[in-house]
Amino acid sequence: MLRWILGGREAQSSVEKSPVLCIGEEQPKNCFTELQVLKGHFDIVRFLVQIDDFRFASAGDDGLVLVWNIETGERLQELRGHSQQITAITTFTCSNGFTSLITASSDRSLSLWDPDTGNRVQTISDLQSSVKCLLVLERLSVWVSGGEELCVWDKDFQLLCHRQKYSDTGITALIELPENLIAAAVDKEIVIYRLVVSPDSSVSVTDVSHCSDHHDQIRALININDGIFASGSHAGELILWDSTNFQNLAYEHILWEESHPSGQTETRLAAPKPSEMSIQHLTTNGRVSLGKRAVNNISWTWWFSCEPQCFVL
């Protein structure tokens, strides 16, 4: 397991071999043992994406994208060009078959990068607003950006179509569904769109459904399998959805009771009021792991098991 420790606040110089701190052999080994500490970023790291079997990239609030060797921890490339924080990053297979990186930034630009050379291949600037999420649809040879508007782009970075304008919150998450459908988180609602590809290769986007069972802003979307996807909200709501008819299959509002230090005397006049857990991240391997953040910034993890006829929290 790798962990990134923030370095000093000063900007980093040109790419050089990064110092890799190897943890001593005397440290007890377990599944959470740190193997290496990688330094290079000088602000919060928010994104990690695997490029191939040998490399991954990290990005965050310093506007940098760093490419690392997975096995050795060596810093291979430093991608510079954004003037503000990175808001989204994804891998992308170009027309020539090589894997590239697409990044979005608060500087209202999109960039295509060659991770082999560190060069910025293409840039889309002066967008109306910053992009908050990216989704690549390899089967259709297009990619989608979400923010205050939904845009569909081809592999040559040409805009094919767009839909605008959404709430001030905008689109915060995107996932691919079967039958050329995509799900977009827009504030408290999930909007289902269908991408229609015409014989002349033009693309259009149509509304299919609106899912409005959440009571707070949706922070995370994820596919469980071909038939089920899940969403998590800022208020700790977890909902499982049918990917074909978009029906609510299961709903859980996750609460917790704040504990008090031992020995502290407390007089209760009523039952304790539970606090909400904010769902910040979802990941799956047949079950969903929920990353949450409480009011006091304590991180919690819950497991949600998903079987064809059984949903257990």
Automatic annotation (TrEMBL):
SMART domains in alphabetical order: WD40
Domain of life: Eukaryota
InterPro entries the record matches: WD40/YVTN_repeat-like_dom_sf (IPR015943), WD40_repeat_dom_sf (IPR036322), WD40_rpt (IPR001680), WDR41 (IPR040102)
Annotated keywords: WD repeat
Spans traversing the lipid bilayer: none
A Pfam family per the record: Beta-prop_WDR41
Ranges of the WD repeats in the UniProt entry: 38-78, 79-123
Protein name: WD repeat domain 41
Record organism: Goodea atripinnis
Record lineage: Eukaryota, Metazoa, Chordata, Craniata, Vertebrata
